[in-house]
Amino acid sequence: MIAKRNHRLGALLPLALVAAVLGTAWFFGCKSGPTEQAGRIVAPGDVDGVIAARGLTPADVYAAVKTYVPTGQKDEYVILASGGHSGQMLVIGVPSMRLLKVVGVFTPEPWQGWGYSDETKAILGQGQVEGRDITWGDTHHPAISETAGDYDGQYVFINDKAHARIAVIDLRDFETKQILKNPVSLSDHGGTMVTPDTEYVIEGGQYAAPLGWRYAALEDYENAYRGMVTFWKFDRDAGRIDQQRSFAIELPPYWQDICDAGKLVSDGWAFCNSINTELATGGIEQGKPPFESGVSQRDMDYLHVIDWRKAAELVAAGRARQVEGFDVIPLEVAAAEGVLFFVPEPKSPHGVDVAPGGEYIVVSGKLDPHVTVYSFEKIQRAIADRTFSGKDQFGVPVIDFDAALETQIELGLGPLHTQFDDKGYGYTSLFLDSAVARWSLGGPYADKHGEAESWQMVQKIPVHYNIGHLAVAEGDTVSPDGNWLVAMNKWSVDRFLTVGPLHPQNFQLIDISGKGETMQLLYDMAIGIGEPHYAQIIKADKLAAWDVYPEIGWDPAVQAVRTGAPALGQERIERRGNTVEIWMTGVRSHFTPEHVEIQKGDHVIWHITNVETAKDATHGFALPAYNINLSLEPGETTTIEFVAEREGVYTWYCSEFCSALHLEMVGYLTIKPS
Amino acid sequence: MTRETLDKLIGPRVSRSEMAEGRLQFLVPTLLLGAAGLLLVISIFLPYWKMRLLAPQYPGGLEVQAYLNHLEGDVREIDGLNHYIGMRPLGGAAQLERELSIAAVAAIALLAIAAIWIHNQYAALLSLPAAVFPFAFLADLYYWLRNFGTNLDPTAPLSSSIHPFVPPVLGTGKIGQFATVAAPGAGLWLAFAASLLILTGLWFHRRAYKPLVDASRA
Lengths: 674, 218
What we know:
The complex is a heterodimer.
Chain A: H1 2-31, E1 35-37, E2 40-42, H2 47-54, H3 58-67, E3 77-82, E4 89-94, E5 99-103, H4 118-125, E6 143-147, E7 150-160, E8 165-170, E9 175-181, E10 188-194, E11 200-205, E12 209-210, H5 221-224, E13 225-235, E14 240-251, E15 255-261, E16 269-275, H6 291-294, E17 300-307, H7 308-316, E18 321-323, E19 326-329, H8 331-336, E20 340-346, E21 349-354, E22 360-365, E23 370-375, H9 376-385, E24 388-391, E25 397-399, H10 401-404, E26 405-410, E27 415-420, E28 425-430, E29 435-440, H11 446-449, E30 457-462, E31 467-473, E32 482-489, E33 505-511, E34 520-527, E35 535-539, E36 554-555, E37 560-561, E38 572-576, E39 579-587, E40 590-592, E41 595-599, E42 603-610, E43 619-623, E44 628-632, E45 637-643, E46 648-653, E47 666-672
Parallel strand pairs in A: 14-19, 39-42, 41-47
Antiparallel strand pairs in A: 1-2, 3-4, 3-35, 4-5, 6-7, 7-8, 8-9, 10-11, 11-13, 12-13, 13-14, 15-16, 16-17, 17-20, 18-19, 21-22, 22-23, 23-26, 24-25, 27-28, 28-29, 29-30, 31-32, 32-33, 33-34, 36-37, 38-39, 39-40, 42-45, 43-44, 46-47
Chain B: H1 3-10, H2 16-21, H3 23-43, E1 49-55, E2 58-66, E3 71-73, H4 75-85, H5 95-114, H6 122-150, E4 171-175, E5 178-184, H7 186-217
Antiparallel strand pairs in B: 1-2, 1-5, 2-3, 4-5
């Protein structure tokens, strides 16, 4: 017996030797041996060797060192970006450009259990259109709540262009709390933007539609179709928009595009631009000009100048009429009462952005190489002096272009959007040029940048490619931070490894910390989830997110402890007729109870609380066949309901790796034949 | 009780002339015993013992602080972890001690202060409980750590890999991926200081009053 065992050991000996040699080679290879990179031998720790081997330029090394956030350290800024047609919102760190989270908004999101619990289904259900669940959204413009014109980091709003919906996200837990379908608007684009104290969330419409969203023939476009801008009243204490106190203003059937709220000197006003003052209705198949040319005929469209405080007063005075149960100020009232004015704007305008002090309104015409800068003071003077060049065909006073104009700056082709920094520069995205232009502001900003000339282009930096929006750190507030700019490019073409014909979008980080011609491109971040439109960049220390819910039994839908939520030691199953109600807790590494025995046809109401208090001790609850996956974050309670339709045996399990015995965190649901 | 017995118990009184001769020698034991009593009373509001648990997935570590009558810190999380090795929830430990401790410590502190007015060997007897209290605390703590560490639920998930053990009362230990560091809290330090003050105070007490006792016996 002993001899036999020795014999076996003898046979294993050569194998062990080989393993030892290989192991030693591996150990030394990893620990201290030089490695070959791009044909050169580089020893670990040899920085110059790596730079040479990878062929990095000094600019590359600067970019790497400028953006690298050492392991374990945190970013200085946070980008809240629309997720485009993912219907979600992206959370990204700056300067690392690490993706921190994809927040479920208009689209179900299984990891967060978003749209799989009763509570989250109810919030998604608020966004139903014509009684139908809509499981996607075209998110465009996030807007962080503001106090005195500066981001306060409490809430963020975001729109769904496709359905004219807006959502409210609470930045304490980065979860969506409310979705509203605009009852009077078909689609939206000029949203969301907030007024300086978040009194209102602005949602400009996009494609004109018959008022009340009824049928009207396209031949009747001028009479029956209307544009819209909606002012949603935000109740900060409730953390919700109050639809009853919200209102819209009926607008001519131009296609209103982006809006921005005035601030400081222009507080109380909003600015929206528009295209299609031509009232084109397309019809390429009938030999009529297609929209792309019909909408682009006129050299000037109209910047809408809106006195929203006066509009709110008109609503309070009963001057609105009800459309679909919603207060709408009729167009003729808005025009007659001095709520709505137009200023001509060139050509095919897209972005409208108010300077930090509120003195200037910067408009970019897609088909005009300039940005056009209007003076708020001049607009006010023109209104006071009635310096109108006339009225449009709907009776809205049109302010004389030259009377409102401060200046125009030639930047390049396809200017779209502008943001600002702390040094007196404006930054405008140039879609056709695929570039970002830095230009010097005049007036009170001239002292800051120290450039010889105000209202002049300073530097133009290429981006890759087809930039839409850009975002500067806090660049649309009353006190921009500068430092960083993110170019949100629509095309990446050749910038990343090919992953099929659908290419990622490209967020490019640009260093704007210096003055003059010092802008430098630092980093490309692929976005592989949708096409983001707008983003805002907030200083990370302005966010005060929870790392666990404040108390056990927390219902995130109402941000409060729920009475009767399952608690430790009070787990139970109760039957009333054919309704079975379960109160379950989860804690590493078990659910209580672990057996749920019911009968086919039972109506099941299942409450679950994660009674953990440790950071990151999230449990999932995955129940197959019933389309259920929940995310129970520490302290969270949630409820699911379903009818047990088929007899059989099901296991539910924790779908978030919680502990060493995570696989054992499971239970059996047995459904007996009835 | 006769006057005589009472005198025997509380020892001789200090006469005006004796006081005038050596005020300081009577003041020192009074102050030391008084301070000891005061420190003990303050210690009621401070943690007596704390244990930190360090593991990779808890970057800040976990900590439990034991006060005389309650536990603070990450007790919930530590209990949650302990269930894997079959340790009972910490709240179940030393329930009687915790219920009585405030009154008991207040009482022994008062006794130590009362010893100021006892001018013979019975002063030592009165202040003895306060002097030994921190040692008694540690002994009781050891009892409970041993009790909890060695009475693990044999059906617990990790019972095959974590065998019964006695967590160190003071110093470092290792349980699974957790390094533990146990240390006295401010309360226990105060109790030790009180103990030291009492011993020193009794020495001065003896020096001050022994001659008087001897004189009264003579």
